Amino acid sequence: MRAAAMIEYGEAMDAMPMSVILVIAVATVFLSVAVGLTYGVRSKFVRTRFIMTGFFIYIVFTLTASFWQFALATLPYTIPAALLGVAIGYFVGVRAASEKLKMQGVQYYMEHFAHVHIHEVKALNWWSLINYYSVMGVLVLINLVGLSNVIFDGSRLWAIITSTVGALLIGSIVPYLIHLWSIRATGMH
Fold first, then answer.
1. In terms of DSSP H, where are the helices of 41-94?
2. Residue spans of the chain under pLDDT 70
């Protein structure tokens, strides 16, 4: 009975694409680093900025590991999507962040820049929608990667769709990360 279960487990592991196993391993490393930063960096702003940057790198790694074999096929779609994402990220995301920074001041902004407050969502403040978009976009992308690799078994069409969505998301995050790294965080506790 136990031998049959071990054989079945081994067959299941053989059926799992190596890219999925690799992405899960790197996710474990990312989450471990995030926990380490939580206890090792006192400044909430600096800590969150590092975690957001690490998460960005994880997204890029996930797409690369999952769809490297389709890189040339995706370029006609991912390049325009990334450029559109950069434009949206700059004209919407950075503009909203700059507006929030001006309205709230540096200290308050650094303490609450990544929060989604209910009263801000009800008021349809730009920054609350941007933070919500970022979180939901990443969740949609992670599910698309799983769908493409596991359910559709690495289909070229789904690789192109997922890579295009990923390029749009990555492009929209880049200007926001540049904005965050442009803020001096000295003297933060």
1. 44-67, 71-88
2. 1-16, 112-135, 185-189
Distance CA 5, CA 124 (A): 53
Here the tokens at position 34 are 């995030």
| Contact indicator for 89, 177 with CB cutoff of 8 Å | no
Q: Are 70 and 160 contacting, i.e. CB atoms less than 8 angstroms apart?
A: yes
Q: In this predicted model, what pLDDT tens digit does every residue of 62-112 receive, in sequence order?
A: 899 889 999 999 999 999 999 999 998 888 878 877 877 788 787 777 776
The DSSP code for 161 is H
For residue 60 the two structure tokens come to: 């890029």
CB 115 within 8 A of CB 132: no
Amino acid identity at 40? G
Which residues are CB-contacts of 126 (< 8 A; sequence separation ≥ 6)?
Answer: 92, 95, 96, 99, 100
Residues 6+ apart with CB under 8 A from 189: 42, 43
Domain boundaries, the chain: 2-182
CA distance 89 to 100: 15
Task: Report the distance separating Cα 186 and Cα 21, nearest Å.
Answer: 39
